[in-house]
Design a protein that fits this description.
The chain is of the alpha/beta class. The protein is built from nine helices and eight strands. The chain has a single domain, classed as TIM Barrel, CATH 3.20.20.140. Helix 2 links the parallel strand 2 and strand 3. The two termini are 17 Å apart.
């Protein structure tokens, strides 16, 4: 069984033995690839370096909505140029977060549209973060998708059915995190039961959102197996089948990535 952690933050783990151990435990747990996510352009070189050093780690380039005001305002051309690196397979994470509002809403929306245009022109998927902004997120995605050539994923999906249905309509993927295992997540589980299997990915968002039975611990890609097991139960399939299908979905969406050769 081989899983892909479609969204984690390996740069949040101190470099050296600690990060090496996290990556090693992921491999031992059956995680065959990891996508480590950029949240700040100013720290992108460190993210890229992790992907350059590990054959089963890929990366994205982008600015998290929390950082939209603090980071230098970027352009489509800057994002496209950085995305030409062979280890960069996605644009983001970007989007809207109206829960914390660490950045003004207009600045978040402007950055979101810039990332969408860079994704469309580069041919790479956009990685979307949304919290307490379902309507506004869907509105921007519909407008940007209408220009053609936009693909992507709603990462760490935990919101409403309407956004899930709109994402499916736009041919986006939906990525599920450890939230799906939480005791109070039954509304989310009901939505997941109804989602098409060919649109699902799994992720950790590590070091955040450790799944049951690892709640309270610092999350890491090795814990992805617990989320995958829960999603498999919800879909009425084996964990092996869930791993196979979500891995296929990952490489279909992130088509620039290629599976790493088996480790000996």
């Amino acid at each position: 069984m081989t899983l892909v952690d479609s969204h984690c933050h390996l740069d949040f783990v101190p470099p050296g033995p600690e990060r090496d151990a996290v990556i090693a435990r992921a491999r031992q747990a059956g995680v065959g690839a990891m996508l480590t996510i950029s949240t700040k352009i100013t720290e992108f070189p460190a993210v890229r370096a992790i992907a350059e050093a590990e054959p089963d780690v890929w990366c994205s380039v982008g600015i998290h909505p929390h950082e939209a005001a603090a980071e230098p305002e970027t352009s489509v051309s800057v994002l496209r140029d950085l995305a030409e690196h062979p280890r960069v397979i996605g644009i983001g994470e970007t989007g809207l977060d109206f829960y914390y509002e660490h950045s003004p809403r207009d600045r978040q929306a402007s950055a979101f549209r810039t990332h969408a245009e860079a994704a469309r022109l580069s041919g790479l998927p956009i990685i979307v973060h949304t919290r307490d902004a379902d309507f506004e997120t869907a509105e921007i995605l519909v407008e940007e998708a209408a220009k053609g050539g936009l693909t992507g994923v709603i990462h760490c999906f935990s919101t409403g059915r309407e956004l899930a249905e709109k994402a499916i309509e736009l041919d986006f993927m939906i990525s599920l995190s450890g939230i799906v295992t939480f005791k109070n997540a039954e509304p989310l589980r009901q939505i997941v039961r109804d989602l098409p299997l060919d649109r699902l990915l799994v992720e950790t968002d590590a070091p955040y959102l450790a799944p049951v039975p690892k709640r309270g611990k610092q999350n890491e890609p090795a814990f992805l197996v617990h989320t995958a097991d829960e999603v498999a139960k919800l879909k009425g399939i084996s964990s092996e089948e869930l791993a196979r299908r979500t891995t296929e979905n990952f490489y279909r969406l992130f088509a620039k990535a290629r599976p790493a050769p088996p480790r000996t």
